[in-house]
């Protein structure tokens, strides 16, 4: 007999189902928000690194964090070019502590991050930035982040403002976002960068102070071998990393060293426990009421295994019911937070899958707790 | 007949009540936890400045917050000395550099706070006890909240700051932050040695006034006396500026703000859901009470009694667990998690209000229940 008992139990009382769905949905929302905040803070830190077009990345061996400047001499990039398999090496210059942006609206100044690149080289992966790089050939022009923090003042293309007391023209916008330390990012050409921050230019161009070197390899070259070769040949003041390692180092720092990981993981755990309790409560109430039915099933010969199956299926359905509206509401909240803060709130497949597994686990644990009562039911007692 | 029905309703089915109470407890823990994080951000934003021994501060007009102070010319301090009520004006320098663990070679960033040890600016005893040692060259104090990964950081250890070997005289405690995981206090002379900066670029000028002087009036006088490249603030204005900056203009503040909002909403929904489930499970008993002649008022009293009992029983373990979590987070993440009395009262009021509201909502069901239908 194929009566979908779990389904019928769950949908028998529509009003209770709505309440139960609401409870689970809130637990889902809670976990998604906490993990979303955590990922947003971590992802936002590495977003600029993810946008760079490189097979291998060269940084000073003193560099330990993306936004802590540790420049190296440009000569190292020329040296890397001499290695077989490397087809191009582009410098990225970066300034942070000394880059002051004047808000074009209220004339206040704010610290931003400025990147200097060669506008003729494919430095960025983002088509939005890549397609506008050529406009930077005109001196004193900038591309600015449209998702900068609102208080630093977004300047629109064509407008003029000041960067470190020099008049600059906004040539275009791109979409990047902010993080813990950075309220906004501007991209400019190498030449404009040197005019803004002369400290980075040396009389001998070989000694200009580069922050990040982007190395691109010929097709079908074994990148790991190439990296080992480069690290052997180049002096100790620089180190060559795979792109993943470069991004991973930054992620690890924020996830494991700073309090970010702990704080939001703790929030997620509390959300999970709240979910287990809500779900148990729903199932307990429901099963208590259906006790006569379950006892009858037992009396007519159904085994415990069957009854357990029904309850666990019911719990899984509940997880599914709560998950969908939970994700829907979270999606709206993600958009709102992203709009407010400029952080990257991504509701990706991986995160959704993680939270779905957590939700399912939450409901199954509660189902397991609740089913014991059913199994203990003695048909003779119930009537 | 004086049967304590509200209590008996709970005590009757202990298992079910226990689950309900556990749910409410964790909802309360959730609210406390998020409020704790939010509070830690606020406390963390001012913990260094709170220890300044001064009545007014001078900062650059372009001052943003402690991690991006901008500097102003030291000459402004001399100019400020001319004001009537000003007793002393002392410079505070703020910077950041690289801390190298000489044992492992690992590098991390560290925040530097500097002043002239002959003219101390902090009222912290653990700093002021070492003023003589701070005058030695390449000697520093390290915040005791500095993370373990920085390596040796006790009195007598040697570390490298921006490639320069310095000696740790002792530890002090002001507290580190969400972003800066290490902090060092040193003399202005050593600060210049490490950063190759100039003593002419001051981050904060700390002003002490003569006893009895009115800080607000003195600040007004200084503002009119000093050029427009600096701001003069009272302690309260300075605090308010830092808190406002971190809450409204940093992502951390906004994230924890929305964290609190979500926790309160979810917490309230869970409280409501639990209380109404608990009351609904006794619907037939309530209907019986109606049938045997209880007035609506008496039933409301029982329903509300049950709701209040449940929430008060849940509140105490919620508070206890909350305090335990605060302690754990404080110890492992070095965030200043404290539980002010106002927060306890506020959350308690929220819980009581929510339980009354949920009780009343649930009572409507009881009210329309027809005893004849239920059996």
Overview of this protein structure:
The complex is a heterodimer of chains A (383) and B (375). By secondary structure, chain A is an alpha+beta fold. Chain A folds into 2 domains: 5-46 and 258-382, no CATH class; 51-244 and 251-257, no CATH class. Chain A is built from 12 helices and 13 strands. In chain A, strands 8-9-7-10-6-3-12-1-13 form a 9-stranded mixed sheet. A two-stranded antiparallel ribbon of chain A has the order 2-11. In chain A, strands 4-5 form a two-stranded antiparallel sheet. In chain A, helix 2 (14-51) crosses helix 10 (304-341). The longest helix of chain A has 38 residues, at 14-51. Helix content of chain B is 53%, strand content 18%. In chain B, the strands form 2 sheets. Chain B has a 6-stranded mixed barrel. Chain B is α+β, with helices and mostly antiparallel strands and 375 residues long. The model of chain B has no long low-confidence stretch (mean pLDDT 90). In chain B, strand 6 and strand 7 form a beta hairpin. Classes of the chains: A alpha+beta (383), B alpha+beta (375). Chains A and B meet through helix 2, strand 5, helix 8 and helix 10 of A and helix 2, strand 4, helix 9 and helix 11 of B.
Keywords:
heterodimer; A: 383 residues; alpha+beta; 2 domains; 9-stranded mixed beta sheet; two-stranded antiparallel ribbon; 12 helices; 52% helix; elongated; B: 375 residues; 6-stranded mixed β-barrel; two-stranded antiparallel sheet; 13 helices; 11 strands; 18% strand
In short:
The complex is a heterodimer of chains A (383) and B (375). Chain A is an alpha+beta fold.
Determine the structural class of chain A based on helices, strands and strand pairing: alpha+beta
- N-end to C-end Cα span of chain A: 25 Å
Radius of gyration of chain B: 29 Å
Number of strands of chain B: 11
Total E-strand runs of chain A:
13
Number of helices of chain B: 13
Number of helices of chain A: 12
Oligomer state equals heterodimer
Query: Radius of gyration of chain A, Cα only, in angstroms?
Result: 29 Å
- Determine the strand fraction of chain A and express it as a percent band: 15-25%
> How large is the share of residues in beta strands of chain B?
15-25%
Tally of individual domains of chain A: 2
Main beta-sheet strand count, sense and barrel state of chain A: 9 strands, mixed
- H/E series of chain B, N to C? HHEEHEEHHEEEEHEEHEHHHHHH
Largest sheet report of chain B: 6 strands, mixed, barrel
The greatest inter-chain interface is formed by: A-B, 56 and 53 residues
